[in-house]
Design a protein that fits this description.
- By secondary structure, this protein is of the alpha+beta class.
- It is about 20% helix and about 30% strand.
- It has five helices and 14 strands.
- The strands form three sheets. A seven-stranded mixed sheet has the order 1-2-5-9-8-7-6, with helices on both faces. Strands 13-12-11-10-14 form a five-stranded antiparallel sheet.
- Helix 2 links the parallel strand 1 and strand 2.
- The longest helix is centred in the C-terminal third of the chain and has 21 residues.
- The protein is globular.
- The N terminus is likely disordered.
- This is biotin--[biotin carboxyl-carrier protein] ligase.
- Keywords: Biotin, Ligase.
- Its EC number is 6.3.4.15.
- InterPro entries: aa-tRNA-synth_II/BPL/LPL (IPR045864), Biotin_CoA_COase_ligase (IPR004408), BPL_C (IPR003142), BPL_LPL_catalytic (IPR004143).
- One of its GO terms (molecular function) is ligase activity.
Amino acid sequence: MTPRDSSDSPDSPRNRWSDLDRPPLSSTALRRGLVRDGGLWRQVDVVQRTGSTNSDLVARAAEGDLAEGVVLVAEEQSAARGRLDRQWTAPARSGLFFSVLLRPAEVPVPRWGWLPLLTGVAVATGLSRVAGVDTALKWPNDLLVTVGDEERKAGGILAERAGDDGVVIGVGINVSLRADELPVPRAGSLALAGAVNTDRDPLLRGVLRSLEDWYGRWRGAGGDPAASGLQETYAAGCATLGRMVRAELPGDRSLVGEAVAVDGDGRLVLATGAGVQEPVGAGDIVHLRLA
């Protein structure tokens, strides 16, 4: 079932022009700019409000043969989730909240773990081009910006399986969030980081075009992160590398060490005080200090 598209309707539960600094997105304009013959993006839907674009798109994929390249965008989410089921909250139209459906049939499933990292590279690249903001990636899925002299999280990525052959990737980016709207003091936004452009339409187009480009390279290389250039590019933009970090691992374990590499499986490699290099494939990473 296709969600009701309210982005172009003047009769919404809320006054869609209540904040002139945050105009609504137009699904018609986005489709015109992104959907093309031979391209990745086949359908772009914008809904006024939903619980989670990821949950909605996973459910739609389960209902039938939903094609790769569907994009679902929400002006507001009431039950957005990050990694480890953390909540993500933001005022309506203050950011980009969207999910995409991918079906990388040519890529062996063990390499699908690179998709969140690939998305991070694509998002950072697209935002840098359009917003003029220097961004960095915190392994495995956070987007960092600098506000003043502080490193702050401005976005996150969540990947979920959709059946046997699909992956839904959700992206949340704080765009125009003001200081008094931050959910936590160490959050950030593109506006607070000095973005030259906070118009969400060109920002979303830039991010999705960058994602199409990187996904095409990676898929064309059979998911090989080295051959596609993904591994090298991710490492170059990863703020976690070269730092002392604490990895909070499943089973209430933790590991402290210097983050020295991202290996071919997308795992973060830590050099511990015992002189051992240990790969971390899942866990929460806390930046302690520069090495």
